[in-house]
Amino acid sequence: MSEQRDGTAIGSFPRARADAGWMNDLRRERTAGPRTPHQQSLEAPAGNSTTAVHGGTYLDPTTRAVGTPIFQTSTFLLDETSYDAFHEGVTRDVPIYTRYGNPSQWSVQEKLALLEGAESALVTSSGMAAISTTVLALTNPGGHVITAYDVYGGTYNLMREDLHALGRDVSFVDAADPAAVAAAIRPETQMLFVEGLTNPLLKAPPLAELAALARQHDILLVVDNTFLSPACLRPIDLGAHLVVHSATKYLNGHSDLTAGVVAGPRKFVDRVWAQAMRLGGTLEPFSCFLLERGLKTLPLRMRAHHENASGIAAFLAGHPAIGRVHHPSLPDYPYPHLRESARGYGGVVSFEVAGGDAAALRVLQALRLPRVATSLGGVESLVSMPFNTSHSSLTQAQRTAVGIRPGLMRYSAGIEELADLVDDLDAALALLDEDPAPEATTDSPDDEARDGRQEETPCATA
């Protein structure tokens, strides 16, 4: 088989590298990818919308389709390049078996890497698959991880339960306080894992400060960017080593798949890929197609999410039936550094209804447009209450201790007309004036016993 000067087999895929030990050497230099000769590249820097539409698209030479085909296959014909890849242990770059890699995956991964300003990206079957494989691949038994005490519940449980069982120690701190993070660093600390915005109170850790701290101590900084997306914030530009997402949310944007993403230097992403290959968290080809379709409208959708959430926050901030409102667009938002680095704030706004959880439930039931459901980031608005969903395992006292006060609602603004969403909220809140209900406790009878059993404050689970 003839080759071009760059080592790429003509009409085929890049040949495997000959350095079988590359995967264990985090100091090595790697190029972007994996990618095929048929994927569209953007030679000059392009804006978010251009990158979202064109970046990484597989230009099929046979059908000349304008979009990436769905490579709905589990396995591929073997050839000399395949055998080389097996021999050298570098099967990520060659189509052999879909658990190793598939052009449907490579196309959407290239687009994601370009959007995040990363060298490489990997898609997985869920956000938790991306998080768990990243943490396991890049830490060792005997190592130490620092994360936030109010991190997403699935991540919290992974850190507290699974990592402990696998020989890693974890410290939970206030990630918005660099001094608290610095105080938790040990000689064996290997990773700092934080979220760009937290759920549901939208706290924003100072990523640039944390990145400087991580580099000073030779620690990997991993940022969960789910609540903002690369259309609003690129943590790698602020010094983060890797970014993870639940692509189920904004990246896909249509509430019709579960997926995860990790993006960063290829030397790290390759390690995560190897871990994912062993654990089996592969994203199948049709979901890759759906995710790539969703990404093409990401910047457009994020502008609508941002505008709607900001408008809702402004309306609620002046409403007599509402207490605190949590959204970065408001002048009293306590993390102003986010405004210096973010191009938008996403679609989530949280607020407290006067009268507590009972009154908030009445508002929830009166809303017509948002769907009552967990998750966020879809084109449709969603609304939920932490006390009976994400934070239901906490007592009321524990919820209050982490800032989840009675009456708190989380509203994920979709892309509907802002005026319609505000009118709907206004009408639902007006019902409280007609028949105000006394605040009711939402603790269960065994809360006191539960308080005594829990040594640490558990976090959200949905």
From TrEMBL:
InterPro entries: Cys/Met-Metab_PyrdxlP-dep_enz (IPR000277), PyrdxlP-dep_Trfase (IPR015424), PyrdxlP-dep_Trfase_major (IPR015421), PyrdxlP-dep_Trfase_small (IPR015422)
Keyword Lyase attached: yes
Example of a GO biological process term: transsulfuration
A GO term, aspect molecular function: cysteine-S-conjugate beta-lyase activity
EC number(s) per entry: 4.4.1.2
Biased composition (Polar residues): 37-52
Chain positions with N6-(pyridoxal phosphate)lysine modification: 249
Pfam family, one: Cys_Met_Meta_PP
Keyword Isomerase carried by entry: no
Region named Disordered: 1-53, 433-462
Domain of life, source organism: Bacteria
CC terms in the record's Gene Ontology section: cytoplasm
SUPFAM superfamilies membership: PLP-dependent transferases
Catalytic activity: L-homocysteine + H2O = 2-oxobutanoate + hydrogen sulfide + NH4(+) + H(+); L-methionine + H2O = methanethiol + 2-oxobutanoate + NH4(+)
Requisite cofactors: pyridoxal 5'-phosphate
Transmembrane residue ranges: none
Keyword annotations: Lyase, Pyridoxal phosphate
Entry similarity comment: Belongs to the trans-sulfuration enzymes family.
Name of the protein described by the UniProt record: homocysteine desulfhydrase
Lineage of origin: Bacteria, Bacillati, Actinomycetota, Actinomycetes, Kitasatosporales
